[in-house]
Structures are given as C-alpha cells and as structure tokens.
Amino acid sequence: MVSAATVFGFLLIMVVNTVLAAVAIRFFRLRLTTTWGAVVYTAVLVPLLYFGTTILLSGFIGFGGSGVQDRGTALILVWVVPFTLAVSLDIFWLPSPDEVELPDSAR
Fold it and tell me: Boundaries of each DUF7991 domain copy (predicted)?
C-alpha cells in the first residue's frame, strides 16, 4: 500500500516539473527566432531540469525505495506526464509567440 507521504511527494514533483517545463518551453518559444531552436533546447534542457528537481525532491519520498515498486511507472509520472502537460499548456492555452509583444531592449 502506498502511503500518503509518497503520493504527496509524487504530486509535488509532478507540479514542480510541470511548472519548470512550462516556463522553460515558453521562454524558448518567445526568445528563440527559429522553431527548431526551441524544440532542440526544450528536448535537451528540460530533461536536465527534471533530473535536478527529481534528485533534489525525491529524497523526501524515497524514490524507488519502499514507496514505489516499479521505477518505470515512477519515471513516467514525474517526467513524461509533466512534460506532456507543459507542452500542451504552451501550445493550446497560451497565445502564439507571434502575438506576444516583447520589449525592444532590457534596461
């Protein structure tokens, strides 16, 4: 039986990873001029963010220990689901990068 702390820990990691991925994907789509640049940066850098947050936050829930018997399912929950949610949030619910006005220069 899975404890409430394990469920809360997984939900915490999923929420943090979703927010980080959504912000990173949006940043790449707004700042990079090419479509493939945003795709490449997203495919390379978001998993690095996930690796760091998963290692940092998983110590609280014992990732792969007694709380979870199947590591594949755990990785799908903390990497694939948040990434899919972040991509769908950016593509379907946020305005297109062409519609967003960016400042000419930073002060």
Answer: 1-105
